Amino acid sequence: MNIVRPKIVVLGAGYAGLMTTKQLTKVLSPEEAEIILVNKHNYHYETTWLHEVAAGTINHNQARVMLSDVVSQNRVRLIYDEVEKVDKEEKKVVLSNAELSYDYLVVALGFESNTFGIKGMEENAFAIKDIDSCRLIREHMEYQFAKYNNNPDAEDHSLTILVGGGGFTGIELVGELAERVPELCKKYDIDRSKAKIINVEATPSILPGFDEELITYAKQSLEARGVEFRLGAMIKECTEDSFIVGEEAEEIKAGTIVWTGGVTGNSVLGASGFELNRGKVSVTDDLRLPEDENIFVLGDCAWVWNKEADRPYPPTAQIALQQGVATAKNIKALMYNQPLNNFEFHDKGTVASLGSTDGMGSVFNGKKLFGKPAAVMKKVVDNRSLFLLGGVGLILRKGKLNPFDTL
Ligand code: FAD
Ligand code: NAD
């Protein structure tokens, strides 16, 4: 006899989607539901490591994990396809190559770069989006260095790397570049003083809103390693080889330009007609789409309100992983007409890398970390994420092994 099981479809195998899927296999038996995970690629990638892939300080293969290695295909049907839109009236998902019906849906398709309509940015700047876009940044940057001594007309600015936006992504990226650029100079016989790394930030400070002491540490540490900052410098335009900044329309030229000035929710949300607030869904307390009780929206696609601070939580891997755990339990509750639990975020702090041996952040109720201890903590956090998604085996294969080497 064929038993018709409810169909749970999870869109996106990032932190939120993969965690939801793995937890669903724990809270539900095979007889209770069919679980389907849809992802653009046949691999998950560690989004939080993408700045390292872009700078070339780690190999891209370290940051990606084949889904078939971490998801049991006895329990989960894997579909590698691109989601185009959700048709919530028909309860189906339109993929590039097929359509899929669902009873319960989890939308966890992550972020897209947001250029805020800045002239030329979309066309001329690279952005940290996924593994392939970061490989392109790495290759382009290396090509600029390889070309320099082979072209008598090469101008010094072709070696400059401009990073637009001094939020966490921009700062972590320049931290890696401070390590990578000296290596590239050595490899291609280029004087280190010729290759500039410039971070351009619109507000008067990098990491606006973050702890002052930690900001000062990060800025001084990066400057000591050759990073230049242009603060209070609003980027107005991006040309093929420059940013135009500030009221005076100053031109800063470069051979590699990366935009890290902001992110928004995946464009599938808009294509699906979901009600959006600045590109994301303002979800209910139990992380559902307000207009459809069978659709959960997680991770960088969702605004989750922090009632204490009266603003949304910043989108992070940490919150996305916790949402995955909560959502698997809530889907089970929904299936059995039980009450759902509101999502509660347990903040474990924020740590940022400033290259592989430096960092800063605050953990455990505000305790501040600087320098090597922070770098060790960041690697422990990176390994923890691998552990949560793929156990000890995944740490052994892909982990930042022996983080204490940093000390
Ligand atoms: P993601 O992890 O981005 O996953 C989305 C998935 O959906 C991907 O697998 C993607 O391929 C897939 N997908 C996208 N579109 C489609 C489609 N149309 N069809 C099919 N599949 C699709 N947060 C922290 O907590 N700590 C950090 O140290 C940290 N560092 C960061 C460093 C960088 C460089 C960046 C960019 C972000 C960092 N963040 C960090 C933020 C964190 O990475 C995100 O908040 C987190 O990845 C969100 O998880 P998610 O599951 O929503 O999306
Ligand atoms: P963001 O929005 O946090 O920062 C973007 C920065 O670009 C801001 O400082 C903004 O002032 C600046 N900017 C915007 N427009 C500009 C312009 N025209 N000219 C110059 N500067 C401009 O984006 P992000 O850094 O990509 O971070 C996205 C999310 O990912 C955040 O929630 C962050 O917490 C998270 N993240 C966390 C970590 C970590 O925990 N280590 C690392 C990376 C990202």
TrEMBL record:
Q: What molecular function terms (GO) are annotated for this protein?
A: NAD(P)H dehydrogenase (quinone) activity
EC class, as a word, reads oxidoreductase
InterPro entries for this protein: FAD/NAD-bd_sf, FAD/NAD-binding_dom, NADH-Q_oxidoreductase
Q: Which GO biological process entries does UniProt record here? A: aerobic electron transport chain
Name the EC number(s). Answer: 1.6.5.-
> Where does the sequence pass through the membrane?
none
In the UniProt record, does the keyword Lipoprotein occur?
Answer: no
Respond yes or no to whether keyword ATP-binding is given for this record.
no
Keywords, A to Z, come to:
FAD, Flavoprotein, Oxidoreductase
> What cofactors does this protein use?
FAD
Which residue intervals define the domain FAD/NAD(P)-binding in the entry?
A: 7-324
PANTHER family according to UniProt: 64 KDA MITOCHONDRIAL NADH DEHYDROGENASE (EUROFUNG), APOPTOSIS-INDUCING FACTOR 1
What the record says about family reads: Belongs to the NADH dehydrogenase family.
Q: What is this protein called?
A: NAD(P)/FAD-dependent oxidoreductase
